[in-house]
Write a structure and sequence with these properties.
elongated; D-Maltodextrin-Binding Protein, domain 2; alpha/beta; six-stranded mixed beta sheet
Length: 277
């Protein structure tokens, strides 16, 4: 009987010590399942400025949600779309809606916008000619050679009274659509990213703000003229059709539409980039 009681007491003491030992763990220690939680990786193709700069602000916020945002930069308007179409990138952030629509139509891709983020007002910049008023007869103007941005540039030139188009609602206008050209202006169709460096050879250049900013030009202070605030060219976050409801993508959308990102865009770019939400 004594042996039985001794054994019972020993078992009770062991169980008590085991329970006490468990209470020594820190109160804020992560649960075992949290320690094994996997990080979700979301890759986004972006233009260096301002797109990648804006996305960088999202990195620490998404990290708190277990999402690693990987930003891959491109100085190109084609590869970011084909990379998403082919599954090499989860999303991209570099283009406006008219360009996306034209790309899908001509390339047969299946890309969709999931969030409008900002507007980059296109501007006219001086080259050999320092002002619009000083523009001589036969002056040469550089414009982007991609369809939607070319039309956009021509609409901006029309707004300054330099030309008149056959149809001012045609976002895909080309120099062939110019109805009136009183100064006999000549147009050089140039890749958008090389327009800033081509200015010394041109009288004027019409440049997208992302490339202007990358070249140290600020549309609000350096441009001779800029688009109005009601521009339809909102830059968007894009994914392949079917990925719109991906949880990591939706988390990025929520962050991009936050007050923190709106304030950052406003303060960082001083009006050269405008929030569109």
């Amino acid at each position: 009987m004594k042996k039985f009681l001794t054994l019972a007491l020993t078992l009770t003491l062991c169980l008590s010590l085991a329970a006490c030992g468990g209470s020594d763990a820190p109160a804020d220690a992560p649960a075992p399942e949290a320690e094994g939680a996997e990080t979700t990786t979301l890759t986004v193709a972006a233009s260096p400025t301002p797109h990648a700069v804006i996305l960088e602000q999202c990195v620490p916020i998404l990290a708190e949600q277990g999402i690693e945002l990987v930003i891959n930069q491109y100085d190109d308007y084609v590869i970011p779309n084909t990379a998403v179409e082919d599954g090499d990138e989860d999303a991209n952030y570099f283009q406006h809606i008219p360009y996306l629509q034209e790309f899908n139509e001509t390339r047969g891709t299946h890309l969709v916008e999931v969030a409008g983020v900002h507007i980059e007002p296109m501007g006219i910049y001086a080259g050999k000619t320092e002002s619009l008023e000083a523009l001589a007869d036969g002056a040469v103007i550089g414009i982007p050679n991609d369809p939607t941005n070319e039309g956009r540039a021509l609409l901006l030139l029309e707004a300054q009274g330099l030309i008149k188009l056959n149809d001012s609602t045609n976002l895909s206008a080309t120099p062939n659509d110019i109805a009136e050209n009183p100064k006999n202006l000549q147009f050089q169709e140039i890749e958008a990213q090389t327009l800033p460096s081509s200015r010394p050879d041109l009288d004027l250049a019409v440049i997208n703000s992302n490339y202007a900013l990358g070249a140290g030009l600020n549309p609000t202070t350096d441009a001779l003229a800029v688009e109005s605030g009601d521009s339809p060219y909102v830059n968007v976050l894009v994914v392949k059709e079917g990925s719109e409801n991906n949880s990591a993508v939706q988390a990025l959308v929520e962050v991009l539409h936050s007050d923190a990102i709106r304030d950052f865009i406003t303060e960082e770019f001083g009006g050269a980039v405008l929030p569109a939400f």
